Amino acid sequence: MATSASTFDTANAGLVIRPVQPTIGAEIEGVDLSKPLTDELRAAIRAAVLKWKVVFFRDQSIDDAQQAAFAANFGPLYTHPTTQHDAANKEVHAIAAKHDREYEKKLGYKVKPGEAYHSDTSWRLVPTWGAVLRDVNLPEVGGDTIWVDAALAYETLPEELKQRLEGKHVTHNFVPALELSGHEYPIVAHKIVRTHRETGQKILWVNFSQQPQILGVELSESRELLEEVLRQYKRPDVQARFSWRPGTVAFWDNRASVHFAVRNYGDFPRELHRILIADEPLWTDL
Ligand SMILES: O=C(O)CCC(=O)C(=O)O
Ligand SMILES: [Fe+2]
């Protein structure tokens, strides 16, 4: 099937950009992430992340230090409080199947996959803007990740719901922080409908792994509205579902998307390494 040539930004610093959905997700060819980026490449990759919300690089061969160096092209790195520090690369956060089970044990309840559409560090007043994730050990089968276009999720809401959500705040409660890192954090509220400060798009932004509650309405209304948001996130047409294979690096705009790790890999081990990129206070849009 021919796709309109205009959807491929081949002019960008020699990169070939292949979208996986019309508005979210694109594979990028033509760059070796183990090497320092030129200014031109850095700008082209940043533009692609803003446009496609999540981009994927295949056939890469990088270690933790190279992953950190790549991420540092796009802002200061942020060390998550639950990161188990490796002295050499303190920003590298291992996400592993074994860790999931330990994490659940610590929480004392099972993390329900159906409720786990989330953005990273939304419990911060200024959430991290981006993340770079690479595979370290993949299961023999499954282990996909889904990214949701949170702008399209907003755009395709019925008008009546848009109006009900407008101006409302939702909580982001970093519940496990105390158990996992020894630090307490305040419960933060962000607008449900946020304006992305770089693209100007309106974004539907709820973190379903952090006990969301809409402020200023009855609990029943909060639950009903959040159910509608979750319904939007689950629509296949707003999602890019991505299959990992060895040598993959994903880089996403955390302000424009939410994501979901699909637990369809049985007892196979799975390990990914993630690096978060901090943002400026400007975008908080509180
Ligand atoms: O394990 C995955 O596929 C994604 C995990 C995740 O939520 C993250 O890296 O922020
Ligand atoms: Fe995440």
UniProtKB/TrEMBL annotation:
A GO cellular component entry from the record: cytoplasm
TauD/TfdA-like domain span: 17-275
Signal peptide bounds: none
GO molecular function term, any single one: metal ion binding
SUPFAM superfamilies in UniProt: Clavaminate synthase-like
Coiled-coil regions listed in the entry: none
Keywords: Dioxygenase, Iron, Metal-binding, Oxidoreductase
UniProt similarity note: Belongs to the TfdA dioxygenase family.
Record protein name field: Taurine catabolism dioxygenase TauD
